[in-house]
Amino acid sequence: MSYTSSLLRWLQRKRYQYEVTFSLYMLTPAEKFIFNSFLFLFISMIIIAASLYLPEHIMNMWYRAWFYYAGDDTAPAAAKSTNLGTENGDLAGGGFYRMDEL
Question: Burial letters for 64-98: b for 16+ Cβ neighbours within 10 Å, e otherwise?
Fold first, then answer.
């Protein structure tokens, strides 16, 4: 069996599993299209939101954890070397970056 035919068979099996799992096999093609469109839009919005806001959220959590660990207004060496924050490179607001300064 060739690689392309085994790949095609695997994709067909995954499509069948998808339709059976979400009960799409009993819907009309128009209803399947509507359901798949909503699912695609929902997953797209989740991916876009995660790619836009998750890195900033992780960095904010990192700075808070560092503040709890260090107990002062110093930032990790990597954060100071990027020179984010105020004009002189210091952290604003007790160890946290303000949103308008990023």
Answer: eebbeeeeeeebeeebeeeeebeeeeebeeebbbe
